[in-house]
Design goal:
This protein is mainly beta. The chain contains one helix and ten strands. It has one domain. The protein is globular and about 40 Å long.
């Protein structure tokens, strides 16, 4: 187990350099400090829960190879006749690995009481892997052809806590 964690650490460094070259967005872990899974679970804000073994269709709009056999994907599929999107982490996952999906729609959050900041997007998650090899999904949300209505998938590995996000879709 220790050698796998060391390998993941080395691969994470290599992956970070490769991701920058490939145009994958890397962010600070502090950026998700105010987010909570409750922002999108149980039907909140139009999101719907579904099983962690759910898969979208064969075309994945966005995918991030996290290294060490772990992949984070933005999945799309159809539910009740409408196209949906959700985030997923799969592969050789370890407890503490995380996945979330960011969603933005122009004007979705006009703020609350005076002085409340307007959030540019909603972070759905993070959702944390609990066991080795666990596949984990975020709740899903209906997609739109409106260019101001977009999704991206993000995640981090417990071994390095480097946050990586796909481009918006």
């Amino acid at each position: 187990m220790r050698s796998m964690r060391q390998l993941r650490s080395v691969l994470a460094s290599f992956t970070a350099v490769s991701a920058l070259a490939a145009g994958v967005v890397m962010a600070s872990a502090a950026g998700n400090a105010q987010a909570a899974a409750s922002d999108c679970t149980g039907g909140a804000r139009g999101f719907r829960d579904h099983p962690d073994n759910a898969s979208g269709d064969t075309h994945k709009p966005r995918s991030i190879d996290m290294g060490s056999g772990i992949v984070i994907t933005l999945e799309k599929g159809v539910y009740a006749g409408q196209q949906i999107a959700f985030g997923k982490i799969s592969g050789v996952t370890f407890p503490g690995d995380k996945v979330w999906m960011d969603w933005k729609a122009d004007g979705w959050d006009q703020g609350g009481p005076p002085g409340t900041p307007i959030r540019p997007w909603l972070q759905c998650g993070p959702f944390t892997v609990q066991s080795i090899g666990q596949s984990l999904t975020t709740p899903f949300k209906r997609t739109s052809t409106d260019p101001d209505y977009q999704f991206r998938v993000c995640g981090s590995l417990n071994s390095n806590n480097i946050v990586r996000c796909s481009e918006w879709w």
